[in-house]
Design a protein that fits this description.
By secondary structure, this protein is an alpha+beta fold. The chain contains 7 helices and 10 strands. The strands form 4 sheets. The protein has a 4-stranded antiparallel β-sheet, with helices on one face.
Length: 227
């Protein structure tokens, strides 16, 4: 499953004045529902400044440098694939671990796609994009690569992630055609009224991929966190 969790991260300021955010010992890309099949594809929320010195030392290690390089390689792979699918990327790309997709050209918004992806065990965050009038029903979807990189995903895997995201968008478009009202609540009622084979099929694909990777900090056999 792809899912989102709030993961505490630290912000370090380098000698060149740039900032970078990184995993801390207490935030090993854990998942909210204790399901080892889940994957985190959204950026983590910044937490309080704790264990700062230990994390800064971590950021200076070669292992961490390689990790961040892989984070960016994975982001490039995902963005390129999304563009191939015709997904509009705000600012035409990204230079960091985050990317913002504009869903409005497809005729859907971030709230609807976010909910469909959640039902398929993919949890992303809706996000406002330039020109939006509502933060409750924004036109964008925000994606990040750090957590899945921590689980061992590489460029090839993020191409699949992008494929799943596009399938979720397409499903949202099709379901919207069955909704009579224009409110998000009307859309949710239709989603809850019956099962959708397309969502079930996407969920199966997601779980199949997720099962190939460990969930860091969670023992699936014991069913509990290890850190």
């Amino acid at each position: 499953m792809f899912t989102t969790t709030s993961v505490k991260r630290e912000t370090a300021i380098g000698r060149d004045g740039r900032t970078s955010r990184f995993d801390g010992p207490a935030c090993q890309a854990l998942v909210d529902s204790h399901d080892w099949r889940e994957l985190v594809i959204d950026d983590a929320s910044p937490g309080q400044e704790q264990e700062g010195e230990a994390r800064r030392k971590q950021a200076q290690t070669q292992e961490f440098v390689k990790y961040q390089q892989q984070v960016m390689k994975n982001m490039v792979a995902m963005v390129d694939r999304l563009k191939e699918h015709g997904v509009k990327i705000v600012s035409e790309g990204t230079d960091n671990h985050l990317v913002l997709c504009d869903l409005r050209p497809f005729g859907v918004d971030g709230s609807r796609v976010e909910r469909v992806l959640e039902l398929a065990h993919i949890a992303c965050n809706k996000n406002t994009v330039p020109g939006d009038k509502s933060a409750l029903v924004p036109g964008g979807l925000r994606l990040g690569t750090p957590a899945l990189t921590t689980r061992g995903f590489t460029e090839e895997d993020f191409v699949k992630v992008a494929d799943y995201i596009k399938k979720g968008i397409d499903i949202s478009v099709e379901i919207s055609k069955e909704v009579e009202g224009k409110k998000f609540g009307d859309f949710k009622k239709v989603l809850e009224s019956k099962e959708f084979p397309a969502i079930a099929a996407l969920k199966k694909e997601v779980e199949s991929l997720a099962e190939e990777f460990p969930t860091i900090g969670f023992d699936k056999a014991e069913g509990k966190y290890t850190k």
